[in-house]
Amino acid sequence: MTGRILVTGASGQLGSRIIHHLLATSGVEASAIVAGSRDPAKLADLAGKGVETRRIDFDDAASLTEGFAGIERLLIVSTDALDGAGTRLRQHLAAVAAAKQAGVGRIFYTSMPGADDSLITFAPDHLGTEEAIKASGIAHTIFRNGWYMENLFMALPQALASGQWYSAAGDGKLAHIARDDIARAIAAGLASPSAENVTYTLTGDTARTTDEIAALVSDVTGKPLAVVHVSDAELAQGMEHAGVPAPFIPTLVSFDANTREGKIAMVTDDARTLSGAGLTSLEDFLEASKAALLG
Ligand SMILES: NC(=O)c1ccc[n+]([C@@H]2O[C@H](COP(=O)([O-])OP(=O)(O)OC[C@H]3O[C@@H](n4cnc5c(N)ncnc54)[C@H](OP(=O)(O)O)[C@@H]3O)[C@@H](O)[C@H]2O)c1
Q1: pLDDT per residue over 190-199, tens digit each?
Q2: How far apart are CA 256 and CA 254, in angstroms?
Q3: Distance 163 CA to ligand 1 centre (A)
Q4: Model-level pTM?
Q5: How buried is 89 (Cβ within 10 angstroms: 0-12 exposed, 13-18 middle, 19+ buried)?
Q6: Is the C-beta atom of 59 inside 6 A of ligand 1?
Q7: What is the pLDDT of residues 77-102, one digit of tens each?
Q8: Which of these CATH numbers, 3.30.2350.10, 3.60.20.30, 1.10.287.1120, 3.40.50.720, describes 4-149+176-204+267-279?
Q9: 63 lines ligand 1 (CB under 6 A)
């Protein structure tokens, strides 16, 4: 392996699993990996394994100049700044500009499926970042990460408690993928990048409607779960009554609208092909999560 790999957001759930798989699955030497975080103190375990840690904060240009020095492959993990004020796109553009300045050899980025044709409120952050990476002239690999199976925890515990799952997703399908399967695929892509500029879409094996997912959940937990199909406006109203903070409601509703319109129904082999490993099935994920789902 030539050059060093930097993973930003290394203390996050995805970033930490990517570094785990670089070391444990892809066989990359610890000395070839740099873990970046706003708070390197959170990376003490990695430092103990011989991984260099650096402070990387996309809001702090100086941390990027120092942090990207000597890096050949840079994975920009998209941030969680969903304030609706363009913060996340600004953060990512700062990272791309600093990568150019530092002479990074290849940029990798965690995007979302169909970033260019999506109803999700934050899709423009991802599209804008993809466009900036392409315009930079730097070799690149885009990972369009499908929705995590773990996202089901946003709705299912409450739905199981009441027996009713309110959804505006209609008959739209979605192929959830375990976060760890995405991490393994990304680690493999970082360790052995394509020679070309490439975009992967990392999805699960099977696309299902909300009713099909509810039936599986019911089978696994032994609890009845009915999907109550509502409109976007009714879903938003229900969330408001349930105390969901107002700024989050349009984004949450846009997830269902996007699914309903078939914009996240794609199923690809990309995750399996990249990692060379099988994917966790939704049945197995639900079985392993049963206790947590039932609270
Ligand atoms: N596909 C999906 O279903 C799905 C679901 C949720 C989120 N996402 C996206 O995927 C990303 C990774 O997911 P996750 O599960 O790991 O989420 P997470 O645990 O919430 O991680 C958030 C990440 O954002 C990083 N970050 C926040 N502010 C930053 C800044 N100013 N500069 C640099 N990094 C910053 C954090 O890094 P440090 O704290 O280490 O600095 C952390 O890695 C999320 O941030 C989000 O963009 C995708």
Answers
A1: 999 999 999 9
A2: 5
A3: 31
A4: 0.98
A5: buried
A6: yes
A7: 999 998 878 999 999 999 999 999 99
A8: 3.40.50.720
A9: no
